[in-house]
Design goal:
The chain has 62 residues and is α+β, with helices and mostly antiparallel strands. The chain has a single domain, classed as 2-Layer Sandwich (Alpha-Beta Plaits). 24% of the residues lie in helices and 26% in strands. The chain is built from two helices and four strands, in the order βαββαβ. The strands form two sheets. Strands 1-4 form a two-stranded antiparallel ribbon. A two-stranded antiparallel ribbon has the order 2-3. The radius of gyration is 10 Å and the shape is globular. 26% of the residues are buried.
């Protein structure tokens, strides 16, 4: 599974980083993915971060 952040949509709220720091980090004022593949132990929190993104800037590729 792979997570992708659309930097054009991201508002930099940091919710994804708070929810799933194993996958997301802040870079300047936007979030970015820090791993190529989502670790198994972070799948649930990554899905939660995706679902809770207020601007739908995160998508998941299975």
């Amino acid at each position: 599974m792979k997570a992708i952040v659309d930097a054009d949509l991201c508002t930099g709220c940091g919710l994804c980083v708070d929810t799933c720091p194993a996958v997301f980090e802040m870079n300047d004022a936007v979030a970015k993915v820090r791993v190529a593949e989502v670790p198994e132990d972070a799948v649930e929190s990554c899905r939660e971060a995706t679902d809770n993104c207020p601007v739908e800037a995160i998508r998941i590729e299975e």
